[in-house]
Design goal:
4 helices
């Protein structure tokens, strides 16, 4: 679950343009409902614990999408790279 929350943080950070202080708790940034489980998992995680930098996810996603699309076209045309 921790990895899922961090992944959510990566995506949300790339699509949110509000200024967020690095010491903001991830719990608050993700606007997660408070339950015993979520408090246990997110108790020490902060915004600064989100891996990579703002914009990295979208750039990687687009790059991977182009690569996959290219491979699919080559396969359909029976062309080797």
């Amino acid at each position: 679950m921790k990895r899922g929350f961090l992944s959510h943080g990566v995506i949300r950070r790339d699509f949110t343009f509000n200024a967020v202080h690095p010491t903001t708790h991830l719990f608050d940034f993700l606007n997660v409902s408070s339950t015993e489980v979520t408090r246990k998992i997110l108790k020490e995680l902060l915004y600064r614990d989100i891996p990579d930098k703002h914009g990295d996810f979208l750039a990687r996603y687009e790059s991977n999408h182009r690569l996959l699309y290219r491979k699919l076209i080559f396969k359909e045309l029976d062309i080797e790279e």
